[in-house]
Amino acid sequence: MNLPGDKSRPGVLYVVATPIGNLEDITFRAVEVLNSADLVAAEDTRHTARLFSRCQISTRLVSCHEYNEEQKAENLVEKILAGADVALVSDAGTPSVSDPGYRLVMAALEAGLRVIPVPGASAVVTALSASGLPSDRFCFVGFLPKKQKRRQEVLGSLAGAEATLIFYESARRLSGFLKTLLKHLGDRQAVVAREMTKRYEEFLRGSLSGLIQDVESRTSVKGEITVLVSGKAPADKDSATSPKDLYGEIEAALSSRDISPSVLAAELARKHGISKNRAYRLILDFKNDRQQDKG
Question: Which of 71, 86, 121 is the last residue of a domain?
């Protein structure tokens, strides 16, 4: 950082992660940087002011959100070029990860300025670490496009990915969102992470169909939502078992037990090492074939 009154060299842009819920998750380094910066650019100054009050930080705040970021970026870069150290924060977590910030970072880099990350909380990694889903490969999608056609295109491009998929969604749209995932990805294993690090933190785990039933059985679902969905099973596992090998087992199960296709698909997936999505499709194909034979 520049020493007080030292304007002989450009300043620095710090990208500072802040807590996603529990304010105790702020790092020592983040507090030090926010205290020492000449200016802090915040997504919502009122929200950040509460964190500053808790941590006794008195640095001046300016707003930098998605609606003014392009305009603010030019002004902030000028201040950094003049020697000011600026820290960038979002309302929660790491700036520019599905939050404002990347325009300012890009403008600073284009101006030849130094950009320093100050790592900390991120809803993406927090949810993944406790999900129980494979974490060796994951794909962060964030919020899906609002337009239905574009949304379908994105999900279509992700359907074959073997990596765990991570989405953000609002609580009020959660049920419909899970139904959309079920339609385009199949009945995969998934996790709904709600209110992470806060008092009412909750992780819902199960198949997408089961999670839909859980969510719709509640009077309401509140809080910040992160949804994780298991990736497509590797092709070599799926190809090891042919449909004919499973049709007899499917027929026996459906005729002898009152079992839903999603539950049976989960059993077959575990037993034969295939994806639950593929097992579910085989069950539906079997039922359709049987109906045609009867017809």
Answer: 121
What CATH number does residue 142 fall under? 3.30.950.10
Domain that holds residue 67: 12-121
Pick from 63, 87, 121: which residue ends a domain? Answer: 121
Can you state the percent helix, strand and coil of the chain, rounding each to 5? 45, 15, 35
Strand 39-42 and strand 114-118: the pairing is unpaired
The whole-model pTM stands at 0.75
C-beta atoms surrounding 74 within 10 Å: 12
The 10s digit of each residue's pLDDT in 121-143 is 999 999 999 999 999 999 999 99
pLDDT (tens digit, 9 = 90+) per residue, 45-74?
Answer: 999 999 999 999 999 999 988 888 888 899
Q: What is the CATH number of the domain that holds 79?
A: 3.40.1010.10
Judge contact between 165 and 277, C-beta under 8 A: no
- Integer Rg of the chain from CA: 24
Q: Are 94 and 3 in contact (CB under 8 A)?
A: no
Contacts of 175 (CB under 8 A, 6+ apart): 212, 215, 216, 221
Residue found by looking up tokens 């997408």 in the block: 208
